[in-house]
Write a structure and sequence with these properties.
Elements lengths: L1 E10 L6 E11 L4 E5 L6 H9 L6 E6 L2 E2 L5 H11 E5 L10 H12 L5 H6 L15 H13 L5 E5 L7 H18 L2 E6 L10 E6 L2 E7 L12
Parallel strand pairs: 3-8, 3-9, 6-7, 7-8
Antiparallel strand pairs: 1-2, 1-4, 4-5, 9-10
Helix pairs in contact: 3-5, 5-6
Length: about 230
């Protein structure tokens, strides 16, 4: 379980100080599929970064199974992210000089996962293990990023606008892979998106505005990637 208590986060200083998160509190159950919705500047990506340990809050607590990661030293926080979390961003961040196999192996090595071929197969790229990023379509590159993240065997997968650079057909395909693998492997998904239709896939949806949570709801029957609008 992830429990966030009264998180504040600001950027800048003195007269230029801007408060991005204004006392956020929420609880995320293990195995959840949660979507953070909101317009640009609402604070959703900052909240994702703080929950994941990529950024530190100004104040407040972030508990993972009772352990407050907001109080960890940098070295401990790095170890936590390495062992517990994985990330997928709008940009693929693949290493151009490594093929599909070796890009995914990078994630696998962080977890001592010697059976990472399963992740490559799970995203439908077994036949392209020897291909390099420039030889792949955008959707295929994002699927490599998905496989690399899952090869870490994370407890929590964070996604920041993962379909933002993809066309509709490819975006649906990537979301379908993530959703199916989440159901199979039972990791927690926390996804930031501006696309309200994607929220129909989540069990829990949180809408943010101006650094606050303004609405929370549950989907009793989440839709698949091919059932949602776009």
């Amino acid at each position: 379980m992830i429990k966030i208590e009264n998180i504040h986060k600001s950027y800048g200083s003195n007269d230029n100080r801007f408060e991005v998160l204004k006392g956020i509190s929420l609880t995320i159950e293990d195995g959840s599929f949660l979507v953070l919705l909101g317009a640009s500047g609402s604070g959703k990506s900052t909240l994702l970064n703080v929950i994941s340990g990529l950024e530190s809050p100004d104040s407040g607590k972030i508990f993972y199974d009772g352990k407050n990661i907001a109080a960890l030293a940098d070295e401990e926080l790095t170890k936590f992210r390495k062992e517990k979390t994985a990330f997928i961003f709008q940009q693929y961040y693949l290493l151009p000089h490594l093929n599909v196999d070796k890009n995914v192996k990078m994630g696998a090595d962080l977890a001592g996962n010697h059976d990472y071929i399963k992740e490559i197969e799970a995203v439908g790229l077994a036949a392209k293990r020897s291909k390099y990023p420039h030889e792949l379509s955008g959707g295929e590159q994002q699927r490599v990023a998905v496989a690399r993240a899952l090869a870490k065997k994370p407890e929590v997968l964070f996604l920041d606008e993962p379909t933002g650079a993809l066309d509709e057909a490819t975006g649906r395909q990537v979301l379908d892979y993530v959703s199916k693998l989440q159901k199979e492997l039972h990791f927690t998904v926390i996804m930031v998106t501006h696309n309200a239709n994607i929220a129909d896939m989540a069990k829990t949806v949180i809408r943010m505005n101006s650094g606050n949570i303004v609405q929370t709801w549950q989907n009793e029957s989440p839709k698949t990637a091919y059932e949602i609008g776009w």
